[in-house]
Design a protein that fits this description.
With about 210 residues, the chain is an alpha/beta fold. Helix content is about 50%, strand content about 15%. It folds into 2 domains: about 120 residues, Roll (CBS-domain); about 60 residues.
Length: about 210
């Protein structure tokens, strides 16, 4: 129910709510004991996010930081306060770009009040990258992006997605070809008209991609 308030193509729509958060006044020993209890049910335990009493995101500490520090060391002294995060209503492609830029295993998601609401993991973002790449390829070919995998899409749906563009391309190419055949002499006299030839070839290429 919590996730349904976000659109499916936003960071909030793909985040997991099974994350681990701690308070900055906890020490390393207490935190490790807490992890033994909570980590089995969490999405991932590589990064532990630090929040204040109002659940505002204030820092992050890695599992490595906990292992190498003394049990009595306070979290506030070993945490990194400069946390890279993303808003819950941000597009999922923006989250994918952050993973690509920083090489994260997880990315925290916050609401408009900077309260921690969930995390996005690397395996979640792989699905997003594949989905966005497929959508970009469809757009590159002049095809309306499909909502389902290509081979799972009905023939009628594929026909509806392409028939309008195919008709427009065929009509445009027919007119362009007719005009070029009529004005062959003019094209020889005015070389600048030859610059329209690539447009005709591109129409043919787009028609082929659509088909």
């Amino acid at each position: 129910r919590e996730l349904l308030q976000y659109d499916e193509d936003t960071s909030g729509g793909i985040m997991a709510t099974e994350y681990i958060s701690i308070k900055s006044d906890m020490d390393v020993g207490h935190t490790l004991s807490f992890l033994r209890k909570e980590a089995p049910d969490a999405e991932t335990g590589y990064y532990i996010y630090v929040v204040d009493d109002n659940d505002h995101l204030v820092g992050v500490v890695s599992l490595r930081d906990l292992v190498v520090n003394d049990f009595h060391e306070k979290i506030e002294y070993i945490m990194n306060p400069d946390v890279v995060y993303i808003k819950a209503d941000s597009d999922q492609e923006e989250a994918a770009n952050l993973f690509k830029k920083y090489g994260f295993l997880t990315l925290p998601v916050v609401d408009d009040e900077n309260k921690l609401t969930g995390i996005i993991t690397a395996d979640d973002i792989l699905d997003v990258v594949e989905e966005e790449a497929t959508e970009d390829m469809h757009k590159f070919a002049g095809i309306v992006p499909l909502e389902q995998p290509y081979f799972s899409t009905k023939i009628s749906s594929l026909w509806k997605k392409r028939i309008l563009w195919l008709l427009m391309l065929f009509i445009a190419e027919s007119f362009t070809g007719k005009i070029m055949s009529v004005y062959q002499d003019a094209m020889q006299a005015f070389i600048i008209l030859s610059f329209f030839v690539p447009m005709l070839i591109d129409c043919g290429g787009n028609a082929g991609a659509q088909a």
